[in-house]
Amino acid sequence: MLTENPTTILFITGAFVSNKCWDEWKLFFESKGFKTLAPAWPYKDAPAAVLRDRHPDPQIASLRLSQLIEYFENIAKNLPQKPILVGHSIGGLIAQILLQRNLATAAIAIHSVPPQGIMTFKFSFLKAGWGPLGFFTSTKKTFLMSFPQWQYAFTNGMPEEWQDKAYCESAIPESKLIVRDTITSVAKVDFKAPHKPLLLIAGSIDHTIPESLNFSNYKKYSDKDSITDFKVFPNRNHFVLNQPGWQEIAVYIHEWIAKLPQQNS
Q: 76-114 pLDDT, tens per residue?
């Protein structure tokens, strides 16, 4: 139902993909009466194919996680009221950090990169992350997933023609420094502190961010007076935002938001 002052949902894109991944999500939540924003990362406000043509891009390569957090923090601060944050992957990490800074009324972290100190040695996680970390390669050059890397890290379990379409529409070059920064103190969260409502969503077949890693993230939050929820969806990979059936997750998030205290906008 539309209201005079609708809440804004600020979508925070993850690494390796275009912010266009939120286009259908924006339409869904706008139909529910929300305003939506899904800004591109700095230096990435262009179609995926254009960004791939610019690879190796020294501007994107120079990006650090601290800059990215500040960028989204400023967007949140300049809204007329505190937004609801919905972030995917590194966007989920940023959503958790901004929630900790009391810049949102709630946050949803989808297949989130975990804050500092939460780790897994699961093979799929190590295999999917090795290339993006870019050890023994120049950090002055961006990392662009090859199609086989994309198939493993993002679109596993999907027919190859869908994987190819997803790569063409979404895959973009990335800063190796941002990926490395996620294991530093820049990505720190105080898990004992009170926080506004937080929902962590995991996928059962995600190679990049395994379900077990998201569960470990969820279990770290220990303030008993804060709402912290966890939900696993079966057969969802890291391309979850545009994987067929994404609407089921969007509906779940909408229903979760609607149940929150004073959040029925």
A: 999 999 999 999 999 999 999 999 999 999 999 999 999
The pair of structure tokens assigned to 154 is 């993002």
Structure letter (DSSP) for residue 212: H
pLDDT digits (tens, 9 = 90+) for 202-249: 999 999 999 999 999 999 999 999 999 999 999 999 999 999 999 999
Q: Are 180 and 133 in contact (CB under 8 A)?
A: yes
Residue 194 burial by Cβ neighbours in a 10 Å radius (0-12, 13-18, 19+)? exposed
Residue 159, sorted as left (phi over 0), alpha (psi -120 to 50) or beta, turns out to be beta
Contact 10, 16 (CB under 8 A): no
How far is the C-alpha of 154 from the C-alpha of 168, rounded, in Å? 13
Strand-pair category, 35-37 with 84-88: unpaired
146 conformational bin, left if phi > 0, alpha if psi -120 to 50, beta if neither: beta
